[in-house]
Amino acid sequence: MTRIQLAPPAPTTAPGRLAGMPRWFVTLFLTDMWERFSFYGMQAILFLYAVAPRADGGLGLGVGTATALFGLYMALVFLAAVPGAWIGDRLLGARRTTLYGGLVIAAGHTCMALPGAWSIWAGLGLLIAGTGLLKPNMGVLLSDFYGDGDVTRREAAFSIFYMSIQVSALIAPVVTGFLGETVDWHLGFAAAAVGMYAGVLQFALGRRHFGPVGAQPAHPIGAAARRRLFRRTGYLVAVVAGLLGADALAGTLRVEHALIPLGLTVLGVPVLLFRRLLRHPAITPVERLRVYGFIRLFLGSAVFWMIFTQSGSVLSQFARESVDREVFGFLVPASWFQSLHPLFILAVAPLGAWLWVRLGDRLGVPVKFALGLGLVAASYLVMAVVAVRAAEAPVSPVWLLLVFLLQAAGELALAPVGISAAGTAAPAFYRSQMMGLWWLSAAVGAAVGGRIGQLAPALPQPAYYAALALVALAVGLVLLARRVRIRRLLTAGVPAA
């Protein structure tokens, strides 16, 4: 799992230091910090903006539609990393792809800061595309500065990035939430845009310290393949634009018309990728067994993220309507509750790392997955109880603190272990792609969770929360019951200790 180890990395290919850190590392660190600030800042207010009445400057969407929109947005952000990584590896190189991704993200936040429905939809599309370009290639750049033998420093560098992500996620909702909820929604989006422009500027200025790292694609495609790709991409864009245009001219264009096909795409891509992997001529019988074991973890992870990602939509709605948010006469913005999760991640992560080291292999991967699902189930059981009390009067915010604490512990039990399992189960020829395939479980979960969230307005709150808890608990129990079989699949071909 990710280790919380804050030892500074040392440069390997690019000279120059700043405050004891390599200049290239400072550039990457600040770019990632500002990008995460903009991402989490916008995410914290997206759902609340979508359900806010038009008279208050919002989109005026129903809670169900807004929940589906939020879930699909999160899903597409994860999904976009797959083509984004390919573009960096085969077309542009990690350095240019990261820069272009930052510019696209900044343009997306700028669109979100402008009034008008068209600018919101354009902004969301640009944010998805830009994040898909930037995030995977940022990781590639960081890895490329270290040789294969410098594992310790590389892990330390990723640990620092992990901590920076949580700090950004902690601060960003406070800034954008205050501006968006108390002043103007578009001002909150503008704050996210300022953060991303700062990241792009310092990346553009600092990339001169990179030397040759990331300047060229690692596995460039030929000219004929490039032309064929551009031609097919043009056809696809033309078809999509034509369908949307015809829908708009007919006066029948609705948000649902985009949500359904995009959601099906998110669900279909992992199926096609797993099918292609299992039928690949280079895969060995032992590797195929490990992939079958990994698929079981993939499904468990998808259920976890299906429930977990609703914290940004369903729980935001609960915080806005059912929580006593007044503190000394100040009404705490509902979006500020989104800062609780990173706060608890920062607080619990060292304890989690120590606990896994102490336990060693006594708890296998399926058991840790079951624990993560059990914790997120417990969080929604708490919500079911609290929702009963909230029907009578607003409840104390302390209840949401407990909910987010349980979810943070659940993420730390499942997510880092899943990343490690993806590397262990990956066939020799598929190691880099396997990590992208792992994160598609979050895309599937977010997409399905968004659709399920449409049921929330139609069901009593306690029943809805209890149903989510029971689903997570049931899947966790299945993994627990099948733990021996799953562990044998994941360790197929590995000599017994």
Automatic annotation (TrEMBL):
GO terms for biological process: peptide transport. One of its GO terms (cellular component) is plasma membrane. The keyword Chaperone does not apply. The chain crosses the membrane at residues 37-55, 61-87, 99-118, 124-146, 158-179, 185-205, 235-253, 259-277, 289-308, 336-357, 369-391, 397-430, 437-456, 462-481. It is a multi-pass membrane protein. One of its GO terms (molecular function) is peptide transmembrane transporter activity. This is POT family proton-dependent oligopeptide transporter. Keywords: Cell membrane, Membrane, Transmembrane, Transmembrane helix, Transport. Its main location: membrane. It is found in: Cell membrane. It comes from the Bacteria.
